C-alpha cells in the first residue's frame, strides 16, 4: 500500500470510529469535515474520494483469488482501483499520475505527510521510533491476515508486575512455610530477576546468555558473580534450552515470582538452613520444591480469587485496547481469544478491562468470534484434544465437535480452530506474551504468523535513550584503545622479529632503535591499562538504567543480542509492548522487516563515513 493509500485507509477508519461512537455523519456521498477547510486542494480531493470506498471505485482482493507480491507476501485484503468508474469522479486512471514514478512518489509522499498532519494522525514511521512502536522481524502484510488470536494474561490484560507477582510470591512463600522451609525475613524483590534469564538447576545459578548461548552474567543465590567466576564456571559450555533437566528459560513475567523465591531459597540452602528431610539435598530438588509451592498458589484458587475481588489493584487500565480490537473486527478480521485461564477468571478480568471502554453497550464477548478458555497451551498447538462448549453462566459444559461464531468453548486444538473457520496457517496471526507457549509453538506446529507482547520494551526504550551519552563515551574509549592497541601489536611484532634476527614489517620499523621501540611500547601499554580501568566499570554499568544487575533486556554486552532477543527474532514476526499499539498502525498495515547488519557491513559503513555521505546504520 502506498503512503497515500495508507492515509486513505486511516481516514476511512477514523470515519468508522466516529460512526460506532454515535457521531452523526452526513448522508452526502461527498462528505468532508469542516476541519479540513485549510488543507491543500490535493488533500481535499483525497478526502472527498473517501466517499466511494465500496463498489464503485475500490475492490478488495478476495481470499479465493490472490497473488504474492515481490516480498513474498499474500495480496489478500489489498484494496484495488476499479479504473472503469474513475471517470465518474473526474479521474482518468493512471494518466492522472503521469511522469517518472520517482518524482510522482516523492510528491505524493510529501502531500501525504501534510495530510497526516492536517488529520492529526501520527505516521507509522514516527510510531515505530517510539516506545509504543511495533517492531518487525519478518515482513507481515496485516491485510492478508483473516483471523487474529489473542492470549489474555499479560497480553490483553496488562498486570502490574509488582502487585500480581508480589502476591503470587507471598502465596508461594506461605506454601513453602507449610512445607517446613525457612522463609522468615524474605521479601519480594522484583528487580532481582528479568524476563529472558535462564535458571541453571544444576549449579543453583541464574544466568544471562547471549544469542549464541555464551553466559555473560550470572548470579548465585542473590550474589552476582564476577567476570572471572563466570568465565571459570561457564567458559567451556553453552546454555542449551533443549536440556530441560538443567536449564529453565524465563519465558514470561509469570516466571518472576518463581525465580525470585528460588534464588532466595538458594541462599538459605547454602547457609545450611534447609535440611534433607524437607527436600532433596541439591539445587534441582530445591527448584522442584519452589515450583510445587507456586503451582499450589495458582491452582488452589485463593490467589485468583483475591485478584478477582479487587482487579483494580492488579490490572493496569488501557482504554485504547478495546478500540484497537474493534478496528480489527470492523476491518473484517475474525478475532479469537485463546487463554489457559478458566471461565470465571477470564470473564471477570475481561469485563473489568474492556466493557467500560467499548461503545454502544458492547460487551467484551461481542468482540470475539470464538472464545476458548482452559486451552492448555502449548498442547493446544501440538495435539488434538476434546472440545467442550460452555453453556451456562456458571461454567457448565457439554461436548461438541465444531466451534461456531460467538461461541464460548473449553479445550480443543488449533487445528479445530482452523477447520471451524476454514482459515489455515499464515492467514492467522497469534498474539501472546509467552515466547514458548504462545509464539514458538503456534509457529512451529501450525505455521501461524506471530506477535510477541513484551511490556518491558517501553521501559527499555526509555532507558536506551537516556543511556546514549554513556554508550557513546564508552564506544569512543573502546575505539581509542583499538587504535592504540593496533600500534602496540605492530611494535610488539617488530620487537619479536628483531629478537630473532628478522627485519620488521617496514623499513621504518626496522630502523627504530631499541630504546625508542621499548619506550613506545611502555607508553602504549600504560595507556591501554588506564583505558581498561576506565572501560571495565563503564561496561559493567551499561544497561543499569533498565536493571542494575542484568542490564538491558535485549542486549548481552555492549553490542550483542541477548538469548531472549534471539528467540524473539526467530519466532516472533512482530513484537511490541502492548496490544493497543495496533491502534496507531491500522488493520491494513504492511510491516516490513528492517535491514539486518552483518559483520562485514562495517567496511562499507566506514568507507561512507570517510566520504561524509552516510547515516549511521550500525545503531
TrEMBL record:
Keyword Zinc-finger attached: no
Swiss-Prot/TrEMBL keywords: Hydrolase, Magnesium, Metal-binding
Top-level taxon: Eukaryota
Molecular-function GO terms, alphabetical: 5'-nucleotidase activity; metal ion binding
Span of the signal peptide: none
NCBIfam families assigned to the protein according to its UniProt record, in alphabetical order: HAD-IG-Ncltidse
Family affiliation: Belongs to the 5'(3')-deoxyribonucleotidase family.
Name the UniProt record assigns to this protein: 5'-nucleotidase domain-containing protein 4-like isoform X1
Provenance organism: Populus alba x Populus x berolinensis
